[in-house]
TrEMBL record:
The gene is PDH1. This is Phytoene desaturase. GO terms for biological process: carotenoid biosynthetic process. It comes from Cadophora malorum. Pathway: Carotenoid biosynthesis. Residues 18-292 form the Amine oxidase domain.
Length: 598
């Protein structure tokens, strides 16, 4: 660790989950850290909206990959429990409501999944589900080990033997839908097991098969919800930051990154007020595409422009409704899929528009956490995925006048009002709940334009850059600036990608890169993991009960056994045919099987 009297200094631009987690880690490693946030609250997309006793999660509501949360707190020498972050398990995971009046319950309870799958695809269907789960398990384990815990600083990292060996098993070149279609033979179940690509802001027909890992973590590890809202995780990290002396300045927008006269070394940042702050290094947590186009000297570089041309994730129209009574038909998480499944994605991702018949997600935080709404009432969030904006409002580059994408000057009032009508009638028709409209006593709203202006998200893409193969790994914008020494990135649009747990994993990767570049020891490097998921350590002292044994003595048919059996059956059939014997059923006498010569 750096000595206390001469602490190196760091500025973090943005108090999103990525910025706050990086600040906490840098502070632990001995940095004097200042976080600068344009808004009056921390958490960025992972923040809350409060209204008269109702509480809504502005962005994330599904806490997945819980081990990555535990790892962050453990590395900071504490735990979720010690920081009073209490996770509630959502049960069921989701209710999926179909247009034909049917529904499907997704659960981490295997007996529920067996019942639900056998209903549509029979016994074989459940076996195929288990095979799909095994594939998704491999996607998950390989990705956590080889992608979420490693940096990709150059394309040569793709040649790492440990990664390359598993590349084919990750199915990065097949879509999540085409992988699911191999295991699920009805269109209904193909939809059930592919809509999750929307967590990455991608169509299931484009998202790499690897991302079945997200639905896997829900089914194998559950969906969780922090008491008090998702922001409780950020609030705990903020408390850790404050305990270690991090200075978090809210309502403080950064207007540019300052460099040495040669432009090769960072020296600090300038605020929108004109104030200048100096630091040894600057970590950018603000959206990376926005930052490259707005915060650097000579921002409109060709690299910055190419970033804006890369595929972005979708945007959303999000409603936050205070409702005057509970709507018991709705569970914590509800999915309403469009009947025209493929078309609903094509209109978002190919044409960047708004589908006439949208798929949408409804979250009722008060169903799992009673603190989210006054007693006997519900807080409801509706997320309707839509295309992103055609232009980047915050960019210095010239505006496109045509092409796919929504326009900021579009008539949002009428778009929102038509989406609202469709959603309310769909919820009522599919769930049979009481008429909703008269129960909504207050509404808050986010649209692509408000996502862009509130958080500086380029084109209002709520999940940052897309996660297609050529936008991830070594192809994703790097965690370190290519030419300005001392500038690093953390957050949804850099490696490893979007989603709160993934961004937390990214905060670890970026901080370790910074410390490695400066020869500073990594405080948590040799810390024992408290997560017991590697099985019992094998060695001399291992209890006989826990010694791992191969399938010694077990009766099973290996591939060789199956081939031998097949050969034996073939020999018997040939012998029978050559013997001239016939074995037939005695139809007339119905006396059973008889033999004779042909
Ligand atoms: C509607 C929605 C639903 C989601 N659902 C889930 C979910 O269920 N589960 C999940 O895990 N993830 C979900 N996500 C994704 C998740 O919220 C994000 O991936 C994650 O929060 C991104 O964190 P971040 O730190 O990268 O960025 P941000 O949260 O965007 O933080 C960046 C911060 O930088 C600030 N900033 C920007 N420009 C400046 C500037 N010039 N000066 C100072 N500050 C600046 C911004 O105000 C912001 O606070 C969802 C996101 C959205 C929008």
């Amino acid at each position: 660790m750096a000595s206390a009297d001469k602490k190196p200094t760091a500025i973090v631009v943005g108090a999103g989950v990525g910025g706050i987690a990086t600040a906490a880690r840098l502070s632990k490693a001995g940095y004097s850290v200042t976080v600068l946030e344009k808004n009056s609250f921390t958490g960025g997309r992972c923040s809350l909206i409060n209204h008269s006793g109702y509480r809504f999660d502005q962005g994330p509501s599904l806490l997945l990959l819980p081990k990555l949360f535990q790892e962050t707190f453990h590395d900071l020498s504490t735990s979720l429990e010690a920081e009073d972050v209490r996770l509630l398990k959502c049960d069921p995971n989701y209710n999926m409501w179909f247009g034909d009046g049917e529904s499907f319950e997704l659960s981490s309870d295997t007996s529920v999944m067996k019942r639900e799958i056998e209903k549509w695809e029979g016994k074989d269907g459940f076996e195929r589900y288990l095979a799909w789960l095994a594939e998704a398990h491999r996607h998950y384990e390989i990705s956590v080990r080889e992608v979420l815990h490693k940096n990709f600083t150059s394309v040569f990292n793709l040649l790492r033997p440990s990664f390359l060996r598993h590349l084919v098993a990750l199915h990065p070149f097949e879509s999540i839908y085409s992988r699911a279609a191999k295991y699920f033979w009805t269109e209904r179940l193909r939809r059930v097991f592919t809509f999750g690509s929307m967590y990455m802001g991608m169509s299931p027909f484009d998202a790499p098969g690897t991302y079945s890992l997200l639905q896997y973590t829900e089914l194998a590890e559950g969906i969780w919800y922090p008491v008090g809202g998702f922001h409780a995780v950020v609030a705990a990290l903020v408390r850790i930051c404050e305990r270690s002396g991090v200075n978090i300045r809210l309502d403080t927008a950064v207007s540019s990154v300052l460099t040495s006269p040669t432009g090769k070394q960072v020296t600090g940042v300038q605020l929108s007020t004109g104030e200048q702050l100096s630091a040894d290094l600057v970590v950018i947590n603000a959206d990376l595409v926005y930052a490259y186009n707005n915060l650097f000297p000579n921002s409109a570089t060709s690299y910055a422009k190419t970033l804006q041309k890369r595929d972005g994730s979708c945007s959303s129209i999000s409603f936050y409704w205070s409702v005057s009574q509970t709507i018991p038909e709705l569970k914590t998480h509800n999915i309403f899929l469009a009947d025209e499944y493929r078309e609903s994605f094509d209109s978002i991702f190919d044409r960047q528009g708004i589908p006439d018949d949208p798929s949408f997600y409804v979250n009722v935080p008060s169903r799992v956490d009673s603190t989210a709404a006054p007693e006997g009432k519900d807080a409801i969030v509706v997320l309707v995925p839509v295309g992103h904006l055609l232009n980047s409002a915050t960019s210095n580059t010239e505006k496109a006048t045509s092409g796919p994408g929504l326009l900021p000057e579009q008539d949002w009032d009428s778009i929102v009002s038509s989406a609202r009508k469709t959603i309310i009638s769909t919820i009522e028709a599919r769930t049979g709940c009481a008429p909703l409209e008269p129960l909504i006593i207050h509404e808050e709203l986010n649209t692509p334009t408000s996502w862009e202006s509130t958080f500086n998200l380029d084109k209002g893409s709520i999940l940052g850059l897309s996660h297609s193969f050529f936008n991830v790994l070594a192809f994703r914008p790097k965690t370190k600036h290519p030419s300005i020494s001392g500038v690093y990135f953390v957050g949804a649009s850099t490696h490893p990608g979007t989603g709160v747990p993934i961004v937390l994993a990214g905060a670890k990767i970026t901080t370790e890169q910074i410390l490695h570049d400066r020869g500073i020891p990594i405080p948590w490097e040799n810390q024992d993991s408290r997560i017991r998921d590697h099985g019992v350590k094998q060695g001399k002292g291992t209890s006989p009960l826990d010694v791992l044994k191969s399938r010694e003595g077990a009766v099973f048919l290996s591939d060789v056994g199956i081939l031998a059996m097949a050969a034996l059956v073939l020999v018997l059939v040939l012998a029978y045919v050559n013997s001239g014997l016939s074995v037939t059923w005695d139809w007339e006498g119905k006396k059973g099987w008889g033999t004779g010569r042909i």
